[in-house]
């Protein structure tokens, strides 16, 4: 779920940060540039490749094809490996450094099971949160069936989902302390050039998950299963 990625970039440290220790100043600049943003790596391939061969966003670059691969969402700056330079260009205030650094990246993979918490729900499905990341969606078709969606009696602006199994009803709401879901898809929406004032905040990464399988969904659903299995084994 988390990866440590090493990167290299040119970093401009503004004059007001130059009074700080160099590593601290560079970290502040990198945090502003990278935190909560999707980081990408760029690869160049021979011209003999065609755009139809590439599954990611691609474009021509001189006599090659450039392929951009998203490596995940930057969670924090782990450390600074090296910083060289410190040149101040004529007529410019910031000092420019060539920096090698490592970042902690949130990069789940399809098929991974992750523990999350309930955030909200509507007629389209569930929205889950990890605390630092909240763009996890479980669409209605990936909720166990039979089920129903009904108004939440404790929050009239929200709908809640109920799974019906063996004449028992299992509610999915804020009372569910932990919800296990399996990653079905990961997408990286393009950054919008314009956004309405009342629009939802832009999500650089969106995860689609499912809870329609054994062991998935609220942990409370399965707490009694092991006890029942042990009783069956004893008999």
TrEMBL record:
Q: Which InterPro entries match?
A: NA-bd_OB-fold, RNA_pol_III_Rbc25, RNA_pol_Rpb7-like_N_sf, Rpb7-like, Rpb7-like_N
Gene Ontology process terms (BP): DNA-templated transcription initiation
Pfam families per UniProt: RNA_pol_Rbc25 (PF08292), SHS2_Rpb7-N (PF03876)
RNA polymerase Rpb7-like N-terminal domain: which residues? 8-93
Q: Which CDD domains match?
A: RNAP_III_Rpc25_N
What the entry lists under SUPFAM superfamilies is as follows: N-terminal, heterodimerisation domain of RBP7 (RpoE) (SSF88798), Nucleic acid-binding proteins (SSF50249)
What Gene Ontology terms describe where this protein resides (cellular component)?
DNA-directed RNA polymerase complex; nucleus
Q: Where is the RNA polymerase III subunit Rpc25 domain?
A: 112-222
Location(s), subcellular = Nucleus
Where this protein primarily resides, as one coarse class?
Answer: nucleus
Keywords assigned: DNA-directed RNA polymerase, Nucleus, Transcription
| Cited function | DNA-dependent RNA polymerase which catalyzes the transcription of DNA into RNA using the four ribonucleoside triphosphates as substrates.
Family membership, please give it: Belongs to the eukaryotic RPB7/RPC8 RNA polymerase subunit family.
Protein's UniProt name: DNA-directed RNA polymerase subunit
